[in-house]
Description:
Layout (H helix, E strand, L loop, with lengths): L21 H19 L4 E4 L7 E5 L4 E4 L5 H9 L8 H4 L3
Antiparallel strand pairs: 1-2, 2-3
Amino acid sequence: MCSSCGFPSAPGHWTEAGAPTPGDRMRARFRRAQAASVLLTAYGLTARDDGAVPGVQLSSATGATQIVPDFDKVWAEAARMVGTPIDPLGDRFLGDA
Length: 97
């Protein structure tokens, strides 16, 4: 349990399987959040994982921020925040919109 926010510690994401050290797992978390942030920029959102908060922080251009407890829920929360489904293969992301 995180003493700051009360979130229980979550098991690692499947992409961390085989990471030999805790540092490698953290780097995988940071890369995952960075990739999500690139995708979500087309929707006016950013994703951040600083390692201090257990989860991913989603922020909008207006400053609204949600802490999502695990990466699997990022897409659903992002869709809720923008009011439309998030499709990383859609026209908006690919630059055709």
